[in-house]
């Protein structure tokens, strides 16, 4: 199959063929291969390698805003939050993606990506902290790796997967597709929300900020979804807001800071209505495969994206509960059915399939611990 060739060629090209692979051998039964994935033991080095590869794929897909001031600001906010997390010492990297789409993605070992389209919708720093915190929890609780193991079992069962570095190559591609599809479990999404607002409240931010952002997001998508004939009500959103409100009461979360002034000074992007987001054409360079089961790379996108467009009735794994899924009309199953109904639509998701910038380079950010402390103090944060 195509993907086996992709894995093998990547492995060979990168000189990653590993003697350790031999000890895994070629396992002939699918169940054993699935177990091989689920039992894969991760060292910190392997998690770091996986996160770096996934981040590279995300950055190649959407590009990176080449603005040092924006990256420094987002990183200072992110580090204010991670300092309250269970893993303050991870090599946290905050990346602003160059696209109008509204989304955020976590990758293992400290990579947090947020789109400038998401920044454009936010009113204050607390909302930014809330969305970053949601992704930070996906990292610290290793939801990224859990989703990978769970969602990759089926494909691993159907493919031949070697061990060591070849396994990481295989999983990096799968993880990339997972995060674009927001393939976390509902429970992990809910945990990311409630644990995330607990984190920002500890830092001094108002925990209501995440819910405020989600409200703005739902409003922003309302007209677009009605225009497309999708359901105008979002029961998932109501349930999510209800859980956020309950967590604030139960946890006695008492943060109060919104910090809007310096946010507005630094973040000056203008939101683009969902219906006006430019999308990449199916099959063009940079459009990632739509299915985590296929595990395609960006270069291998044509077949999978075409397949998705032609076979919208194929049941998705599950409805996501994150930023992108939440706002696109109640899950891809619903959306797919209605895309069929609308006739003219090309089956593209305006958020996931949005056009991105062309420069994938990470923007280096430097600041001293004293600078971070001063940043917190200026925002009345801790
Ligand atoms: Zn999430």
From TrEMBL:
Keyword Plastid (UniProt): no
One GO-annotated biological process of the protein: proteolysis involved in protein catabolic process
Official protein name in the record: TPR repeat-containing protein YfgC
Family classification: Belongs to the peptidase M48 family.
Biased composition (Gly residues): 321-332
Keywords linked to the UniProt accession: Hydrolase, Metal-binding, Metalloprotease, Protease, Signal, Zinc
Highest taxon, organism lineage: Bacteria
Region (Disordered): 284-360
UniProt xrefs under InterPro entries: Mito/Outer_Membr_Metalloprot, Peptidase_M48
N-terminal signal peptide: 1-22
Comp. bias (Low complexity): 303-314
Entry's cofactor comment: Binds 1 zinc ion per subunit.
Residues annotated as domain Peptidase M48: 73-241
Cofactor(s) the record lists: Zn(2+)
Gene3D superfamilies: Metalloproteases ('zincins'), catalytic domain (3.30.2010.10)
Pfam family, one: Peptidase_M48
The keyword Metal-binding is assigned to this record: yes
CC per GO annotation: membrane
Gene Ontology molecular-function annotations: metal ion binding; metalloendopeptidase activity
């Amino acid at each position: 199959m195509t993907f086996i060739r992709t894995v093998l060629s990547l492995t060979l090209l990168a000189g990653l063929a590993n003697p350790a692979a031999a000890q895994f051998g070629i396992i002939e039964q699918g169940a054993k291969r699935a177990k091989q994935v689920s039992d894969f033991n991760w060292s910190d080095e392997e998690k770091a390698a996986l996160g770096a590869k996934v981040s590279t794929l995300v950055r190649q897909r959407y590009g990176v805003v080449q603005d040092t001031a924006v990256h420094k600001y987002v990183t200072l906010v992110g580090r204010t939050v991670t300092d309250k997390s269970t893993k303050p010492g991870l090599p946290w990297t905050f990346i602003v993606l160059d696209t109008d789409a509204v989304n955020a993605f976590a990758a293992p070992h400290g990579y947090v990506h947020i789109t400038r389209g998401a920044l454009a919708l936010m009113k204050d720093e607390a909302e930014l902290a809330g969305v970053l915190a949601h992704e930070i929890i996906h990292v610290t609780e290793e939801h990224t790796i859990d989703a990978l193991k769970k969602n990759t079992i089926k494909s691993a069962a159907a493919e031949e997967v070697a061990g060591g570095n070849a396994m990481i190559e295989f999983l990096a591609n799968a993880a990339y597709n997972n995060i674009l599809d927001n393939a976390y479990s509902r429970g992990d999404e809910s945990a990311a929300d409630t644990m995330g607002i607990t984190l920002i409240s500890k830092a001094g931010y108002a925990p209501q900020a995440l819910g405020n952002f989600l409200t703005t997001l739902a409003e922003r998508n309302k007209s677009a979804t009605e225009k497309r004939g999708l359901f105008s009500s979002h029961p998932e959103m109501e349930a999510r807001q209800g859980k956020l409100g309950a967590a604030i009461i139960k946890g006695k979360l008492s943060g109060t800071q919104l910090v809007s002034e310096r946010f507005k000074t630094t973040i000056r992007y203008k939101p683009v209505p969902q219906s006006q987001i430019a999308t990449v054409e199916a099959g063009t360079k940079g459009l990632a495969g739509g299915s985590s089961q296929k595990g395609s790379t960006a270069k291998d996108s044509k077949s999978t994206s075409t397949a998705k467009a032609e076979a919208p009735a194929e049941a998705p794994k599950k409805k996501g509960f994150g930023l992108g899924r939440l706002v696109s009309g109640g899950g891809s199953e619903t959306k797919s059915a209605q895309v069929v109904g609308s006739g003219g639509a090309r089956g593209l998701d305006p958020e996931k399939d949005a056009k991105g910038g062309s420069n994938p380079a990470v923007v280096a950010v430097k600041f001293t611990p004293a600078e971070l402390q001063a940043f917190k103090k200026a925002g009345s944060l801790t």
